[in-house]
């Protein structure tokens, strides 16, 4: 049996999820302040778009609470997570978690640039201003100009998401081949 035969060729939602799960990503918590509340969402759709001007994007599900907040807020922050933060990534991906108090066990400080919370444990943070929102199926694509960015933990190991599980990188030469 070839590799191609091991997965269904038809583009069903389950097959699409299964195939996309083969694309390993980093993990970020995107934050914004809207009204009197601080909002957050775990995201792995974050990526860079343009160097000049510096643009990034993430995709946000239309019916999520974060969608409501970030499409009203003009500015937001991206917090890139390190390998120790899987629990936090799970928490900020939990639907129905309380809005008030959701940061109670997460050390944060407020960005003067975006007004959003930065996680103290982030490897890197980027403060962004929305420049465009594109409708794309059941998600919107939010594009933002990077206003400020900081590498907080230059030597930190990243949190990785692969096949629906959080993972850490193995040093080169230690993979199973
Ligand atoms: C690793 C991981 C990555 C995720 N990436 C995204 C994403 O890029 N966009 C998105 O809309 N939801 C993503 N989700 C799901 C959201 O985190 C989750 O639905 C959201 O936080 C629900 O809370 P809310 O409705 O209160 O906003 C991801 C979940 C996990 C576990």
Quickly describe the structure.
The protein has 177 residues and is mainly β. It is built from three helices and twelve strands. The two termini are 19 Å apart.
What features would you describe in this structure?
By secondary structure, this protein is mostly beta strands. It has a single domain, classed as Pnp Oxidase, Chain A (Roll), CATH 2.30.110. The strands form 3 sheets. Strands 3-2-6-9-10-5-4 form a 7-stranded antiparallel sheet. It is globular and about 45 Å long. 25% of the residues are buried. Bound molecules: flavin mononucleotide. Flavin mononucleotide binds next to strand 3, strand 5 and helix 2.
Provide a count of the helices.
Answer: 3
Structural class: mainly beta
What is the CATH architecture term?
A: Roll
CATH class: Mainly Beta
What proportion strand? 35-45%
Q: Spell the H/E element sequence.
A: HEEEEEHEHEEEEEE
Query: Sheet with the most strands?
Result: 7 strands, antiparallel
